[in-house]
Each structure stands twice: as C-alpha cells, then as structure tokens.
Design brief:
The complex is a heterodimer. A 6-stranded mixed sheet of chain A has the order 2-3-1-4-5-6, with helices on both faces. Chain A has a single domain, classed as Pyruvate-ferredoxin oxidoreductase, PFOR, domain III (Pyruvate-ferredoxin Oxidoreductase, domain 3, 3-Layer(aba) Sandwich), CATH 3.40.920.10. By secondary structure, chain A is α/β, with parallel strands linked by helices. Chain A has 6 helices and 6 strands, in the order βαβββαββαααα. In chain A, α1 crosses α4, α1 packs across α5 and α5 runs antiparallel to α6. By secondary structure, chain B is of the alpha/beta class. Chain B has 2 domains: about 260 residues, Rossmann fold, CATH 3.40.50; about 110 residues, Rossmann fold, CATH 3.40.50.920. Chain B is built from 15 helices and 16 strands. In chain B, the strands form 4 sheets. Chain B has a 7-stranded mixed sheet, with helices on both faces. In chain B, strands 11-13-12-15-16 form a 5-stranded mixed sheet, with helices on both faces. In chain B, strands 1-10 form a two-stranded antiparallel sheet. In chain B, α2 runs parallel beside α8. Chain B starts with a helix and ends in a 12-residue tail after the last helix. Classes of the chains: A alpha/beta, B alpha/beta. The interface between A and B is medium-sized, with 22 and 22 residues.
C-alpha cells in the first residue's frame, strides 16, 4: 500500500520491565507537540518482568484508522526475543535498531546494533535505557524532532532526574548518528 | 479572561480506559466499587484518583460479587455508580446484575473483554463475551450494551451508557475489547454542557403514595433515593408496583413484559450505529469495537481494488441492530462479519436479521491476536461458502 509521507509507524520491542510502553507514550506525546495525530498500542504478557513486551506508535497528519503497525519505518529491539520476532522485517527493508549489549550480533545492512544498555549504565542507570533508545529511534528516523523530546522531558522531570534524562537524550541521538 | 482559558479544549494523550473513567465523571458518576483485573485496571486506578477529588467515593472491594452489590446499593442511595472488570470478574457479577435488572437499578458495568475461556490469556484481546452480556444471567430479561472503537468513543459511549441507565432504570454494560481499553490516542474531550447528561426521574407526589415500580406513560417509574423521605423496598423476587412480593401470575406476566418493553419501546433511540462508505456499497462489513478500524481500512483497500465495500459499526450491541443490518444487507451481495471469537456470536445474529440464503462470511480469530484488514479482505475474495480462520501468529 502506498503511504502518505506524513505517516510513520514505529515498533519499540523488548522485555517486560524495560519501560518501552513508557517510551511509546513519550514518542506519542512528542508527536502531539508537533501537532500530529497519534495512536499508541501495546502488547505484553502476564508477568510484570520479562517476556516479550512492545509498544507500537503510529503518527500521521491525517486520521489514523487502523490502530496497528502494518509496515514499520523502524523497529527497536532491546531483547533477543524481540530481535528474533522482527528480524525477518529487516530482510524486507525495515531498519532494526538493536541493543548490542543484550542482543546477539546481526549481519546485514538493515541491522544497526548499538550498545544502548551499556551506555545507559555508564551514565549511571541501566534502567533508563528506554529513554536513551527512544532518542536513538527519533534521531535515526526523524519521526519526531529531538527538540520535541527535550521539551517533553523538561515538562516531565525535575532536578537530578531531568539532568540524567537530558544526558540520555543526547547520548541516544549520538549513538544513532555514530 | 481566565475563565475563558480554562474552558479551552485541551488535547490529551488518553488511554481508552482513562477515557471511560473521565466519561463516567462527566456523566455525573461519583461512586466506584471494584476489584481490579487486567485489562480493566486503569479504570479503577483513574477512579481511585478522581472520585475522592470530586467528593465522590472509591472502594476497593474484596471481590467482584461485592463490587456489583456496592454499586447497586450506591445507586439506590441516589449516586450514579459504576464498576469495571473483565471476563472472570464479569462472570462473578451476574447474580447481582440480575438484581439490578429486576430492581430496575440504574448502573454501569464495564467489561473490558479479554481472551478466555476462564482466565484465558489475561492480557490479550477478545470479543467473546457478546452472548454472556446478553444472556449471562438466569431468567428472561433485556439488557443494553455499548461497544466503543476509539478512545473518544470510550468517553462518549460511557456518557451514553449512564444516560440510558438513568433514563430507563437499567444496568448498562459497556464492553470495549482489550485493544480499545489499552489504546492511547490524542483526543480533545467534550466540554461540560457539550453532551447531554440525563438524570433519573425523581418522584414528585407525596411520599406516602409513592409506588417505586409503577411506570409512568413512558414505561419507566420514578426512582427515589434511599435515605430520602420516600421509604421503599427493593427485592430481587417478583414484586408489585409497591415493591413488595407479589406472586400473582397476572402481576408476574405484567412485570416480565414491562422489563422488556421499556427497552423495546425506545429501541430506535437506543440502537446506535455508525456507517462508513455505505452509500454505494455492495459488500457490507458488520463490526464492533477495535475490529471496526480494521474493517474501515479493509473497505478502503477493497475500494482501491474495485470492490465497493462499506462498514456498519454496532456502537450498540444490545438491543441488536437487526433492522439496520437488514436494511443495508438487502443492498449487499455479501456481508462480512469479523469478530474476535470462535463461535461467530455476532454473525449468528446477523444471520437471524438477514435470513438463510444470505452470503454471510465469518472472520473469526480466537488466539489473542487482532483481526487485520487483510483477514477481512481475504474473506471478501474467497469463494462463497468457504470459511476461514486466520489464527496463524
């Protein structure tokens, strides 16, 4: 199906507890700051930690009818299970950003491995990998501007948490460009 | 100037379940009693925050049987009340939901449908409680049930659910699927006054002559509040217009008929549907809930291939939109019914509406995954009589 240029679809997949549904919400809110329509859906298991967990975000200037991703512009994989689930998409031309700290290396032009979790850990909090990886997705795809994410982070956080999240945002953008 | 600013329409990223809680508050609900269960828990979460802020009440009950009992009690005391649950909890609520039917107690029960049977796939969607909503309780009765497809409809249909409950003195079931309950969309909620809010009819005469179950000409009796000067009795057993036991066959027949007729008489006002691309269609897709969105996309893609497809969304599931389906179905060479269940619970009702001989194509998925536009397109393109179930992961 031919897609309007204003339409973007992103999958953020990983393991329960990594915070990817929050990343999906933040991506949607950042797109709203740019005046776009958004739909964010999620899929997770019954465990509060572990198991495949993912958020889907669709951004469009027009009405979004079908709520689920059909042809992603980018897949983020923060676990081996998530990478396995979506690696066939990469063969069909969908770029996959994956966490090379946690996921076995993948060969091929559409696989982009980055040390997301190690970098988040270096910055003091491996648990904040969701923000760092979200910044990388935004920088890589342009689905939202980094400035919109920064605005959102400044609205959501204060003090030390704000400083850390701004560092994560910058680090994620740099990793995407590297 | 500040007053104007506060009335400005605010666009928010809202989850379906949150919009249901907001809709309930907009409709005037100030009492929530429930037992959290996936995928409905965000409704409890939101009500726990919001109800006390508004001078209302949130109670976390020991189970779902107690939850619906508290809701019935709160409503009889004059509050607009709701509870929210999912399949296993909804099963536990049936007995006192029957009491709400028999006692003509306005209330709203939200059943965010998940995959069963029993505790099933707790986090995955389904549309398989359609017959349970209609017939889950023993005894012969009618019920009103609404099903949203968008976050905005989660809000507006919740307001509508309360309006129907209050107007007709009935419990109303709101039955989103997990997809819609958990989905987030940007939405500008209606401002106060933008959607009509209906309150139950109060008695006007002297308390001594109040008959709590004597309908007015519109078929609905005024309802006083417990604790007011109107003292009255409510029983789940057969009762007369005064609310006290009455086993006379003539009274029993009159009562059962009245409980049905107060809904049937207002059927056209209660049955809400939404049509998309139906003006020139010759293929009709009948849908509800999240499946509506797949159906709309399927219809647009079918049109790109030269198939004139249209969609009829059942916002009201019960009473069933048989006349609306018959009217559109007459113009269609084929009717496709996608639903997230094995048994074709909606398709069976569509068959009743259209009669044998109609080319009805079922699309059933029951593995916890969604129905896609392609699943619906495949059903349109396959030969008549062939049924498919797209349950591969």
């Amino acid at each position: 199906m031919r897609r309007a240029r204003s339409h973007s679809e992103i999958i953020l997949a990983g393991s329960g507890g990594q915070g990817l549904i929050l990343s999906g919400i933040m991506l949607a809110e950042a797109a709203m700051l740019e005046g776009k329509n958004v739909v964010q859906t999620q899929s997770y298991g019954i465990a509060s930690r572990g198991g495949l967990s993912l958020a889907e975000v669709i951004v469009d200037e027009e009405e979004i009818i079908f709520q689920q991703v059909r042809a992603p512009d980018c897949v983020l994989a923060l676990s081996e299970e998530a990478a396995k689930k979506y690696e066939s998409w990469a063969a069909r031309g969908v770029p996959m950003l994956y966490d090379s700290t946690l996921v076995a290396p993948r060969q091929g032009g559409n696989f982009i491995g980055r040390d997301f979790t190690r970098k988040a850990s270096d910055l003091g909090n491996a648990g904040s990998v969701n923000i760092l990886a979200l910044a990388a997705v935004a920088a890589y795809t342009g689905v939202v501007n980094i400035a919109s994410l920064e605005k959102l982070i400044r609205k959501r956080f204060r003090g030390a948490a704000l400083d850390l999240n701004l560092e994560l945002l910058a680090a994620g953008s740099e990793l995407a460009a590297a | 100037m500040k007053a104007v600013a506060t009335l400005e329409r605010e666009t928010r990223l809202l989850q379906g379940n949150q919009a249901i809680a907001e809709g309930a508050i907009y409709a005037g609900a100030r009492f929530y009693a429930g037992y959290p269960i996936t995928p409905s828990s965000e409704i409890a979460d939101e009500c726990a925050k919001r109800m006390p802020e508004l001078g209302g009440m949130y109670i976390q009950m020991e189970d779902e049987m107690a939850s619906i009992a508290a809701v019935v009690g709160a409503s009889l005391a004059g509050a607009k009340a709701l509870t929210a649950t999912s399949g296993p909890g909804f099963s536990l609520m049936q007995e006192n939901l029957g009491l709400a039917v028999m006692g003509e107690v306005p209330c709203v029960v939200v059943d965010v449908q998940r995959s069963g049977p029993s505790t099933g796939l707790a986090t995955k969607p389904a549309q398989s409680d359609i017959m349970q909503v209609r017939w889950g309780r023993h005894g012969d009765q009618s019920v009103i049930a609404l099903c949203p497809a968008t976050v905005r409809e989660c809000f507006t249909l919740t307001v509508q659910a309360f309006n129907f409950a209050e107007r007709f003195r009935v419990p109303v079931v709101l039955m989103p699927d997990e997809i819609v309950g958990h989905m987030r969309e940007n939405v500008a909620l209606p401002l106060p006054g933008e959607i009509e809010v209906v309150d139950r009819k109060a008695p006007a005469g002297p308390p001594a002559s109040y008959l709590p179950f004597k309908p007015d000409e519109d078929g609905i009796a005024p309802l006083a509040a417990y604790g007011s000067e109107y003292v009255f009795h409510v029983t789940s057993s057969m009762h007369g217009t005064d609310g006290y036991s009455n086993n006379d066959p003539a009274n029993a027949a009159w009562r059962v008929r009245q409980l049905h007729e107060k809904i049937e008489r207002h059927r056209d006002e209660i049955v809400l549907t939404q049509s998309y691309y139906t003006e020139d269609m010759d293929v009709l897709i009948v849908t509800l809930g999240a499946t509506t969105r797949a159906a709309r996309t399927a219809a647009l893609e079918a049109r790109a291939q030269g198939i004139k497809a249209g969609v009829l969304q059942l916002q009201t599931v019960w009473p069933f939109a048989d006349r609306e389906i018959a009217a559109l179905g007459k113009r269609a060479r084929m009717v496709v019914v996608p639903e997230m269940n094995y048994s074709g619970q909606v398709a069976g009702e569509v068959l009743k509406a259209l009669g044998p001989g109609a080319d009805i194509r079922r699309v059933n998925k029951f593995n916890g995954t969604i129905i896609t536009p392609q699943d619906i397109l495949d059903a349109m393109l396959r030969p008549a009589g062939a049924q498919t179930q797209g349950n591969q992961p």
